[in-house]
Amino acid sequence: MALQFTLNGERREVSGVSPTMTVLDYLRENAELTGTKEGCAEGDCGACTIVLAETTDGKPQYKAVNACLLMVPQLDGKHVFTVEGLSASDDLLDPVQDAMVKTDGTQCGFCTPGIIMSLFALRQSDAEVTEGEIHDTLAGNLCRCTGYRPIVEAAREACVAQPDGSALATLDASDSYQKADQTFHTPKSIDEMAKVFAANPEANLLGGGTDLGILVSKEREALSTVIHTGRVAELLQIDETDTDITFGAAVTYTEALPFIERLYPSFATLITRIGSVQIRNVGTIGGNIGNASPIGDTPPCLIALDATLILYSEAGERELPIEEFFLDYRKTDLKAGEFIKAVRIPKLSETQEFRTYKISKRYDQDISAVVGAYRIELEGDAVSDVRIAYGGMAAIPKRGVACEAALIDNAWDLATAMTMLGVVQEDYQPISDHRASKEYRLQVAGNLFQRLYQDLSGVDQTLEVVAV
Ligand SMILES: Cc1cc2nc3c(=O)[nH]c(=O)nc-3n(C[C@H](O)[C@H](O)[C@H](O)COP(=O)(O)OP(=O)(O)OC[C@H]3O[C@@H](n4cnc5c(N)ncnc54)[C@H](O)[C@@H]3O)c2cc1C
Ligand code: FES
Ligand code: FES
């Protein structure tokens, strides 16, 4: 069956290309649209940014994405825009292009198509275009020569109008796509997915592809069977009750963010530091858990928040506390043919506080050296309940049981927070790598207790103590 999408407004039916060909290669080599550039080929530079659009709940939604990490079948049923599609002629530029010319927002021009596409998506969104929003939009687009001042100025100028809002046709996506011995499955229901996975237990599950996509983009691997979670209705659901919120595994960071912002603001700050807008537009919560990386950002938070995973297979559904899911380095409790359906997170009670801190070399677009996550409850001046987890400190995202035991029923003051440096070493024996040394990791993990204390008490006593 052919893939169907529109490319710059023209309907395309595609067959005969490998299902694991990247969209970037398809655009440049097959569609001969070379305006979309290849820089890093791993989601970092934004030179390959294109825009995907779909009508959701009657409203067109435009999302900037990195073409280097997407596989061609991920375009099925979508509207695709590249820089070539924006202007009708050299005299009739898109407002974003026009503003970039007027503000001298380009020099060598290599980054420019990607920047134009990121700003085009921002212009089409109904987000309030604040300075913060502009900077966030551009954080995934690296420009080495112009400097961002004129680019930001172009964004301020061009991204003020209301979105176009024109309806976009709804296109069908096929259930599977095949070329030679490679198959890409796009199940629409959870039972369909379980059936396909049971028949192909060696298949690669694909959420947004911001981890898996590296295998095809960088490693040039031709995966034989891929099962895409992005169209499985049950995996796209968000359900909220009085006591908890449940995110389907295929819910993206962008979709989850408004809920997380309302319920766990500190967690939301961390999520806005995962990759870039392009990464968060396709990267899923299920992918971050399924990837089982020791430095994934959400698992420590989900462990500290006492989240439960809902796992699914042809045999049915089972639930597992997320801390029991990670067994060893990149090894999880998933059985053959089983996958993550959803994650359920309890809401915070009136007396619980949640904080998480990400330590990385850069603020934006960087992988963590250490993530600390803390859910804490105080009774008077003492700690009555606490759950602690760290990422980057062991082979798996891991709960800090000695740290918790050292805090429970103890006074919550700066002196206690400062003793935690010693206790952290009972829970964790981190390794040194190119992101951080083991000594640094231990030191920073201990120091974060002081930050937690200051954050919760609103008191900065560090200087007084140091002076003593
Ligand atoms: C430039 C860049 C920056 C990044 N920055 C960060 C960062 O700051 N913090 C961070 O934590 N991560 C970061 N990542 C990693 C990645 O974006 C996240 O891990 C993301 O959540 C992966 O989701 P995905 O849907 O793209 O996963 P995919 O790549 O589609 O899948 C990842 C893994 O999970 C498995 N999987 C997917 N869905 C399921 C499921 N339902 N059940 C079981 N297994 C499943 C897949 O088989 C695969 O092994 C970054 C990646 C890039 C390219
Ligand atoms: S080529 Fe750098 S993000 Fe795609
Ligand atoms: S204009 Fe040269 S990299 Fe941006």
Task: Summarize the structure in words.
Helix content is 32%, strand content 23%. α8 (253-263) runs antiparallel to α9 (265-271) and α14 packs antiparallel against α15 (438-457). The protein folds into two domains: 3-158, Ubiquitin-like (UB roll) (Roll); 235-457, Enolase-like, domain 1 (2-Layer Sandwich). With 468 residues, the protein is α+β, with helices and mostly antiparallel strands. It is built from 16 helices and 20 strands. Strands 2-1-5-3-4 form a five-stranded mixed beta sheet. Residues 462-468 have low confidence and may be disordered. The protein starts with a strand and ends with a helix. The structure holds flavin-adenine dinucleotide and FE2/S2 (inorganic) cluster (2 copies). The site of one FE2/S2 (inorganic) cluster has 12 residues, from loops.
Q: What's the count of strands? A: 20
Main sheet record: 5 strands, mixed
Q: State the strand order across the main sheet.
A: 2-1-5-3-4
Euclidean distance between termini CA atoms: 74 Å
Bound molecules: flavin-adenine dinucleotide, FE2/S2 (inorganic) cluster
Helix content: 25-40%
Structural class: alpha+beta
Beta-strand residue percentage: 15-25%
> What's the CATH class label of the largest domain?
Alpha Beta
Give the domain tally.
2
Average pLDDT rating: 94
Question: How would you sum up the global shape?
Answer: globular
CATH topology of the largest domain: Enolase-like, domain 1
Rounded to an integer in angstroms, the radius of gyration calculated over CA atoms is 23 Å
Instruction: Name the poorly predicted regions.
Output: 462-468
What's the helix count? 16
CATH homologous superfamily of the largest domain, by name? CO dehydrogenase flavoprotein, C-terminal domain
CATH-defined architecture of the largest domain: 2-Layer Sandwich
